[in-house]
Each structure stands twice: as C-alpha cells, then as structure tokens.
C-alpha cells in the first residue's frame, strides 16, 4: 500500500478568500495567512476597518486586499470573487468567517426580520460564497473551505434560537459539501469555535454582566477561557494547508475545552 504522506503545514503561495475580514477572527486569519506567505482577498461589511487593513498591507507591499462586500448579496459576492480572481489569478481556499449574533430572546420573541437576517448572514451567505467559489477551487485542482460554526452547533445557552440553529446548520452543510466535493479534491470543514475576544463576544459579555458571570475567564491558564483570535487563525491555517490532507467533513473543535466539560 502506498500511503500519501501528509503535506506541508504551509499556506505559502495560496490564494485565499476570507469573509468577515475587517474585524475579529476573519481579520486575525487574514493577517496570519498573509504573514505565512498566502495572498488574501478579504471581504466584509466593516468598510472603515477593512480599508485601514487593506491600506496597511498595500503600504507594506504584502498581499492583502480588502473589498467592502455584503455576503448576503449574491451579485456583490460574485463581483468580489471575480475581483479576487483578477487580482491573484486563482483561488485555493475560502474562509467563511462573516457572522452575527443575537442574544436574549426566546423563540416567540424573535421577529421574522431577526430570524431571516441571522440565517441569511450565518448560513445562506456561506451557501452563496461556496457556490461562487467552488468552480475556481476545482479549476485550481482542489482546495480547502473552512466554515466558521461555533460551539453553539453542539450545545447552546438559553435565548439564542436563530444563532444556534444557524451554526448547527453550518456544521451539517459543511459535512454534506465534504462528501459532494471530495471527488474534486476540495476539503470542507466546519470550525467549532469557543469564546474569542472579538467585538461579538465582548458586546455579549457586557450584556451578560462580564466574563466571570458568564463562566469564562481571560486568564490564559484556564479551560474554557476566552481566546485570542490569533489562536483560531492558526487552526484555520492548518485546515487550509496540505498538512490537513485527511481532514474533511469534520467539526474541528478549537474551544479551549469548553465542550469537554460535563458540568
Ligand atoms: N467571538 C466568538 O466567541 C465566536 C465564537 C464562535 C463562533 N464565532 C463566529 O466567528 C465568526 C467571526 O466572528 P467574530 O467573533 O470575529 O466577530 P466580529 O463581529 O468581529 O466579526 C464578524 C464579521 O462579520 C462581518 N459581517 C457581518 N455581516 C456581514 C455581511 N452581511 N456581509 C459581510 N460581512 C458581514 C462583520 O463585518 C465582521 O467583520 C462569526 O461567524 C461568529 O459567529 C465567534
């Protein structure tokens, strides 16, 4: 039997589209990938943060372009993918990091608009971004897609019905795509992410009365602590690299032990 030896953990030379790249995990991922020699096309809603990010890298001569894009708008997604292709000539990976969170409402109190918006950003946009990028990954001979789900895909907290449903669906969609696209050498994984120090978490913790009240800690020696977004970025880089050649269809957990805890 001739086994294929897993490849390099490097993403050097890869062209990667990152959504939600202006802030948080998407931004940390975009910057980490560029530091590792990848070429990144970042898209997202945060025009000011994104433009500042793009300007910084243009001045440094590093390959990170940001384009303001609403991932719920199919025409904008397709235009962004075309721009990424025109900038880098190929696409080897996609990171779907754009997302929104909504707290504090039981199902009866969720409006149609709130439900639709959460599903549109957290789930339908991943479907659209994947639909627009898959032909280019196939044309490149294969690739890797990382869809950011959440620990909420496995277990959840009271009052987040739309978010929990959307993230569980991201896990299901990723597994399904992994099966359909294995034949094209495209790996698809969902990331089960715990608490990360980004705007999304910090706003939520304020509402919950702080980190300790939510059972979390910023102390770096704790289980179920709050992560630095760069600790998620390194896991994403692994999944994008050939070192993850046998990793597909997974709910890849990076949660500091949060879901390991029984009580
Ligand atoms: N922070 C956490 O603890 C945590 C935990 C688990 C999963 N996640 C997931 O990680 C991902 C990134 O979140 P984050 O923590 O970095 O928070 P964040 O708020 O900093 O980032 C979310 C990003 O999504 C972008 N976005 C939102 N709606 C968009 C739209 N319609 N079009 C384009 N971009 C849009 C925003 O512009 C922002 O850049 C999300 O999918 C989130 O659900 C976060």
How are the SSEs ordered, and which strands pair?
Layout: E1 15-19, H1 24-35, E2 39-44, H2 47-60, E3 64-68, H3 74-88, E4 93-96, H4 112-139, E5 143-148, H5 161-181, E6 186-193, H6 199-208, H7 229-240, E7 251-254
Helix pairs in contact: 1-7, 3-4, 4-5
This protein binds nicotinamide-adenine-dinucleotide.
Descriptive labels:
about 260 residues, seven-stranded parallel β-sheet, binds nicotinamide-adenine-dinucleotide, alpha/beta, Rossmann fold
Query: What's the rounded overall pLDDT mean?
Result: 94
| Count of DSSP H/I helices | 7
Please state roughly what percent of the residues sit in beta strands, choosing from under 5%, 5-15%, 15-25%, 25-35%, 35-45% or over 45%: 5-15%
Largest sheet strand order:
3-2-1-4-5-6-7
Summary, kept brief:
This protein is of the alpha/beta class. Helices cover 43% and strands 14% of the residues. Helix 1 (24-35) packs across helix 7 (229-240), helix 3 runs parallel beside helix 4 and helix 4 (112-139) runs parallel beside helix 5.
Describe this structure in words.
The relative contact order is 0.16. Helix 1 (24-35) crosses helix 7 (229-240). Helix content is 43%, strand content 14%. The model has no long low-confidence stretch (mean pLDDT 94). It has 263 residues and is α/β, with parallel strands linked by helices. Strands 3-2-1-4-5-6-7 form a seven-stranded parallel beta sheet, with helices on both faces. It contains seven helices and seven strands; from the N terminus they run βαβαβαβαβαβααβ. It has helices spanning 24-35, 47-60, 74-88, 112-139, 161-181, 199-208, 229-240; strands at 15-19, 39-44, 64-68, 93-96, 143-148, 186-193, 251-254. The chain has one domain (15-256): Rossmann fold, CATH 3.40.50. It starts with 14 loop residues before the first strand and ends in a 9-residue tail after the last strand. It is globular, with a radius of gyration of 18 Å. The chain binds nicotinamide-adenine-dinucleotide (NAD). Nicotinamide-adenine-dinucleotide (NAD) binds at residues 19-20, 22-26, 44-46, 69-72, 97-101, 121, 148, 150, 193, 195-196, 198-201. Nicotinamide-adenine-dinucleotide binds at residues 19-20, 22-26, 44-46, 69-72, 97-101, 121, 148, 150, 193, 195-196, 198-201.
């Amino acid at each position: 039997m001739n086994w294929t030896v897993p490849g390099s953990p490097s993403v050097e030379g890869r062209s990667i589209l990152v959504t939600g790249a202006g802030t948080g995990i998407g931004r940390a991922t975009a910057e980490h990938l560029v530091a590792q020699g990848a070429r990144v096309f970042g898209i997202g809603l945060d025009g000011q943060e994104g433009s500042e990010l793009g300007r910084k890298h243009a001045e440094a001569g590093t390959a990170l372009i940001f384009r303001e894009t609403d991932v719920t708008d199919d025409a904008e997604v397709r235009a962004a993918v075309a721009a990424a292709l025109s900038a880098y000539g190929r696409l080897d990976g996609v990171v779907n990091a754009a997302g929104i969170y909504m707290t504090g409402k039981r199902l009866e109190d969720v409006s149609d608009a709130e439900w639709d918006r959460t599903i549109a950003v957290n789930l339908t946009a991943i479907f659209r971004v994947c639909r627009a990028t898959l032909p280019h990954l196939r044309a490149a001979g294969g690739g890797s897609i990382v869809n950011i789900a959440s620990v909420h895909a496995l277990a959840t907290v009271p009052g987040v019905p739309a978010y929990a449903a959307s993230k569980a669906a991201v896990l299901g969609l990723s597994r399904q795509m992994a099966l359909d696209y294995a034949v094209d050498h495209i790996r698809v994984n969902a990331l089960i992410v715990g608490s990360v120090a980004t705007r999304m978490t910090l706003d939520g913790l304020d509402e919950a009365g702080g980190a300790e009240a939510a059972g979390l800690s910023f102390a770096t020696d704790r289980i179920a602590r709050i992560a630095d977004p760069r600790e998620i970025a390194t896991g994403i880089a692994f999944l994008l690299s050939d070192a993850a050649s046998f990793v597909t269809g997974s709910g890849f957990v990076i949660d500091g032990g949060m879901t390991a805890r029984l009580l």
